Amino acid sequence: MTDFTKRTLIRLAGLGTLAAAAALVGCGKKEEPAAPAATAEAPAAKPAPLKIAFAYVGPVGDAGWTFAHDNGRKAVEAEFGDRVQTSFVESVPEGADAERVIRDMVNQGNKLIFGTTFGYMDYMLKIAGDHKDVKFEHATGYKTAENMRTYDSRTYEGAYMAGVIAGAMTKSNTLGVVGSVPIPEVIRNINSFTLGAQSVNPKVTTKVVWVNKWFDPPKEGEAAQSLLNQGADVLFQNTDSSAVLQAAEKAGKLAFGWDSDMSHFGPNAHLGSAIINWAPYYIKATRDVLEGTWKTETTWWGVKEGAIDLVSISDKVPADIRAKVDSIRAGLKEGSYHIWKGPITGQDGKEVLKDGEVADDKFLHGINFYIKGVEGKVPAGS
User: Fold this and answer.
1) Do 171 and 296 belong to one domain?
2) What's the CATH code of the domain at 190?
3) Which of 44, 79, 267, 272 could form a disulfide with 313 if both were Cys (CB 3.0 to 4.6 A apart)?
4) From which residue to which does any coiled coil extend (predicted)?
């Protein structure tokens, strides 16, 4: 057989092999064997954890607003274990930086994002419109979208209970409040604190100094000292640090903790701490996403839901006042006690709630006035 004939036969054999392979592929045969089904020895892979991110307006620290939110984040981890993966960015300003940070959270694959201050609202709404596959939760706001909802705590309930104690403990009948940012939430807390004080001591008046920041310990301390200089002997705050309580401790006066238990920062001055427990809501929101039941809504929880309380009440507080606070707490929990119930008069002397009239949530959300007994003017634009 000649070399030409051998080469021809080999070539034809090769073409035949290729044709056979092509026929097999054309008949739907796969060249790679199918992957084996999951067995007890080789279980199916676990789904990837739900990535959750939190944007905080202040540092986590060891007390206050952001500290309370981070405790809620930790509660989510404890509840769901390896089904979730959480992260946070602290000290995010209420401005363009908020948009940058939250967009970065989206780009990192987070599917549930919590923004924990009022000033993030419009930025979150904008980002939500660009990322419909992500769920956004905004604290203390009022704007929603199909994938963005709002949540808040009835902090005014804690403020009211603190006020009851303040009214009983003051000797000068002058109370002082360090206000953060003059939005309805904060004005509502100042008024509620005063209502609580007036319920046991109609003679009290409340002075307010605004710092226009949520977290600025030096400014908070200066504001507290200003109030002490004006005769206030019991201080309250709607700011995030323990500076107000520490100023009272140094001056030998009385004060309250806010958002978390601050008793260890001023053990002699401390009368009680109005705290927020974010854990119940954060667990609910996470479960909603994991179970596919998340929907747009507005949530406002208080004592009834375990989100608000007044804790670590000082032994200095008389037994009858402690009992009164216990009674109020029980009434708030069962829905029989109403803090904003008329008659209530505004600072200008006009009646804002008639005798027996109970404020609804729309009224409460829109409070931009001082009640009778609060001195000074509400800042413009509130």
Assistant:
1) no
2) 3.40.50.2300
3) 272
4) none
